[in-house]
Every structure is written in structure tokens, then in C-alpha cells.
Amino acid sequence: MTRREVLWAGVLGIAAAVLAACGRAVDSPSSAPGPTATPGSATVPAATASTTPTVRPTPTPVGGGVPTLREKIARMMVVGFRGRTLEDLDWLKHDIGVLGVGGVILFDRDQETGVLRNVESPAQARALVAELKALAPQREVIVAIDQEGGIVTRLSPKHGFPALASEAAIGEQGDSDVQAWADGLVATLAAAGINLNFAPVVDLDVNPDNPAVGALDRAFSADPAVVSRDAEIELQAHRAKGIRTALKHFPGLGSATANTDFGVADVTATWTAKELDPYRALIGTGLMDLVMAAHVVNGQIEPNVPASLSKATITDLLRGELGWDGIVVTDDMQAAAITETFGADDAVAMAIEAGCDLLLFANQQIYDPERARKVIDLVERLVEQGRIPEARIDESVTRLEQRFPSGAAPAG
Question: What is the predicted pLDDT for the residue at 263?
């Protein structure tokens, strides 16, 4: 059974209350009213999906001299693709090797069709990752994956990888058991060459029926102290192998009653400030690399706008109050909850204005190989129009460079 099938089963009974309009691979109706769209003012029309992109080569690939504005914008993207080799993927080779797109996210199976997508076996996955990194040897290409454990395990026994228990199964175990679990998880990633894991989940398991977290055993515990302890052990294991991590789903998805794969979850009436405790505890450890902002509306912070597009959530709360100055990555920007409510282009502008540094385009619910070029065109125009200062782009590129450097041997 695919993850989409599992998630869909969990939300069929509540879909009617989901916003008509959170992330791709993670997350429904809530007890609070759904959000009201508040679109931004981008002037570029929303993109139309296409599966037959036209490659538009530029004179030279990125990697030499001062980066152009377009190269800096490209650095702020991670894209998904269909294929277990790079054969017949000229658009992806162009995006990474010429445009300078930051990297990719791998999935085992396609969310829409259920067929094999990027992962077939350990040897095949390792070869694919090597192919991807070779596209831009002058910098560290991001190769990301969701390897949480349990149901969200892309490198799974179905494809010849070791079994990996869920966070819920390991959460209340002793430190030595959590350490062994984390070491096994990281060993699998390291063998494949993965350099970014969209994990750990640090949501609190405060709603066991939550179709995005609790019902899928994705959380360590309802106790923030346990979550913080287990997550720290996992972060240390990743850091020891040079693999970056992304805590999710900020500012907390554990109390949700809906799944952001299919609509914006509103946690205004259920969220409590203790869901920030793991972030408070872990920011001080120096072990964090990224934080993933969820497509979750929290009216206690900012009404009607999901966290991924909310300046009050990203800049004021996460960066200001909590003191996080590292990378913030969005959940999937192609999620229907985002594109249908705010428009694909306005959402991109809002995410950057909110303070996000890395935009995730999973190419799952919408498969658009031209999306990276469209986003580069869009953001370049927004900078020229004065809506987004180039200094805002530079802030993100600086943060990305600190974790995924150019001109240096890749870590991990």
C-alpha cells in the first residue's frame, strides 16, 4: 500500500471540512474554521503543469565567479522527479547542472500511480545518487529523502534495505535502544549517499487519531522531554556521518485533525505552546540543520495563513523568539492546499517573504518538469518589480551555503 493510500484512508471521513483550495509528503478537518484565502500580489500568472519541458540552455553552467540572481534563486529549490536513472531526464540534468537548482528529493513510489519512482534497490539507489551529485561537482547537490521510520521509510525492506521501526515504536525505549535505532537509520542513508533527511518528526503525539501524525505512528511521544531527548540522539547520529536533518513540522502538527496532503490543517483550537518545546530545546544543541515549515494554519500565531507562508511564524516566532538562524524549508509547495488557495506563484512569493530559504517542489500531486524554470522566472521578476529585495534572496543563499557549500568536498 502506498503512503498516499494510507493517508487517504485516514481522511476520507473528514474531507468535507478540509479547505477547498500541508505538505506533500506529510499531513485536516479541524475543530476551528478553515482558512480564508489571502492571496499576495505577484503579477505573474500561475504556472500550468507540463510534462514536456523545453530545455533552454544558458551559455555556461553555474560554479564560476559571482552567482547571478537567477543562479541564487535556483539554489533555493529542491525538486522531485520520476526515474531510477538520469536517462531521458535532460530537464533535470539542465536544472541542476546549468540552472543551478539546489537539489532533489527522492521517493520510493509515485504518490499518484503507486509505481516505482526513484528507489528500486540499494545498488540502484546508490548509483542514482552518484549520478545526481556528478551533475554539479563544484558544489554539494542536495539529495534529500523522508527516512523517518515505520510507514514513512523510502529506503525500506520492500526495496532491499533494512527494516526500520517507527518513531512511536522506539520513542519510549531507553537511550541505548534509540541510539541503536538511529545508528541503523543513518547507516542506510550513508550507504546510499543521501545528504539530507527530512527527519526527525518532533511533533507531539497529543492526538492519537491525527491522520497525519498520531495514526501513522510518526511521533516519538506526547511528552516534549521525550521527543527532545530522542530527537537529539537522532540528530547526533546524523551529524556523525555528515548527513543533514530537518526537524518537522513547525510550529507543531501533533494536534491536527486533518492531513495537509489534502488540505490546510487548522490547529488554532487545538495547538498549545508546549509543541514548541522540542525546538526550544534542540536549537541550543547546535545539532540542527533545517526546520520544515508545515502547511498548517495556527490562528494563535497568524490567522488564515499556513505556517509555510507566514512571516509571523517563520521570521517573528522561529527566527525571532526561538533564535533559529539556520535554513527553513517549506513542505511541498505543489500541495493542493497551497496552490488552490493562494495560487502557485503567490505562494512562492509569500514563502520567501515569510523567511523560507528552501522551496520544496515534490512533483508528486502535480508533475511539472518546468517548475524550476518557472519559479526562477517568477522570482527574478518579483525582485525586478521590487516586491522581493535581492538582499532577501542573499540571506537564504548564505544560509544554504553554510550547510551545502560550493567549492568544497561534499560532506557525508
Answer: 64
Give 248-285 pLDDT, tens digit per residue: 999 999 999 876 555 678 999 999 999 999 999 999 99
Residue 355 identity (one-letter amino acid): G
Q: Tell me: the pLDDT tens digits for 199-210?
A: 999 999 999 999
Supply the pLDDT for residue 337: 78
Mean pLDDT of 314-326: 98
Comparing C-alpha atoms, which of 332, 348, 324, 327 is closest to residue 404?
327
d(CA 157, CA 114): 17
Question: HSE of 57 in the Cβ direction (CA atoms, 13 Å)?
Answer: 6
**Cβ pair 358, 290 in contact under 8 A:** yes
pTM for the full predicted model: 0.85
Is the distance from CB of 271 to CB of 255 less than 8 angstroms?
yes
Question: Which amino acid makes up residue 12?
Answer: L
Burial 277-308 (b: 16+ CB within 10 A, else e): bbbbbbbeeebbbbbbbbbbbbbebbbbbbbb
87, burial (CB in 10 Å: exposed 0-12, middle 13-18, buried 19+)? exposed
Helix residue ranges, H only, 17-89: 69-75
| Cα three-residue angle 317-72-322, rounded to 5 degrees | 15
Instruction: Tell me the pLDDT tens digit for each residue of 95-154.
Output: 999 999 999 999 999 887 889 999 999 999 999 999 999 999 999 999 999 999 999 999
Contacts of 266 (CB under 8 A, 6+ apart): 19, 30, 32, 33, 34, 35, 258, 296, 297, 298, 299
CA angle 401, 407, 411 (to 5 degrees): 70
State how far the Cα of 317 lies from the Cα of 315, in Å rounded to an integer. 6
3 state SS for 318-369: HHHHCCCCCEEEEEECCCHHHHHHHCHHHHHHHHHHHCCCEEEECCCCCCCC
- What would the grid cell of residue 123 be? 545498488
Contacts of 189 (CB under 8 A, 6+ apart): 145, 147, 155, 197, 238, 241, 243
Read off the pLDDT band of 336 (50, 70, 90): confident
Give 2's pLDDT tier (boundaries 50, 70, 90).
Answer: very low
Half-sphere exposure of 146 (CA within 13 A, CB side): 23
